[in-house]
Design the sequence.
């Protein structure tokens, strides 16, 4: 069994004022010169209601839960408790051998373009035969912006994954996730760099 914890970190508007313009710019959102508290919160208050999520394998129920995401939410539990299955079900990434039912409501469109996914193992996320540059799907300017955000130089774009360190690969995965105009990001067992 696993547990979910909501509001892992409450962001105070004072600190949000400091980072909001940068984050909104990276999300390709036009911002006015003066940002008030209401406007800032309107950009960051995205809600997802998971009214029902059931996952079964050969008739055996593996996951049965419901929860609401209003701010930050963490799924906490032992290995094998269903955390990864839950995230994969929300992203429609479950194997065909599993059956699932879900009822989800959100105040934004949940699709490929609005959700980013940072997997548990960054090494299996990139094609080993393709240079990093070709694994981004955005403009060169955007690539440079997000690489700078994760403290990487643009020379990494001309490398293959096996030519980079584990920390660099992890930051590239984060940069790729942030390169889209996302509303929501799933992090699976992300270890802090």
Sequence:
């Amino acid at each position: 069994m696993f547990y979910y914890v909501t509001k892992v970190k409450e962001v105070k508007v004072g600190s949000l004022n400091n980072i909001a313009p940068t984050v909104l710019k990276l999300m390709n959102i036009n911002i006015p010169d003066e940002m008030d508290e209401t406007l800032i919160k309107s950009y960051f208050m995205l809600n997802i209601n998971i009214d029902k999520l059931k996952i079964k394998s050969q008739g055996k129920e593996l996951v049965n839960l419901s929860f609401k995401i209003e701010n930050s939410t963490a799924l906490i539990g032992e290995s094998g408790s269903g955390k990864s299955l839950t995230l994969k079900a929300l992203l429609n990434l479950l194997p065909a051998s599993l059956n699932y039912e879900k009822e989800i409501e959100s105040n934004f469109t949940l699709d490929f373009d609005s959700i980013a996914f940072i997997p548990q193992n960054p090494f299996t996320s990139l094609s080993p035969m393709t240079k990093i540059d070709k694994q981004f799907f955005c403009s060169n300017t955007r690539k440079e912006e997000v690489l700078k955000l994760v403290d990487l130089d643009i020379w990494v774009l001309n490398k293959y994954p096996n030519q980079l360190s584990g920390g660099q690969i992890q930051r590239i995965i984060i940069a790729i996730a942030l390169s889209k105009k996302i509303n929501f990001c799933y992090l699976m067992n992300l270890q802090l760099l």
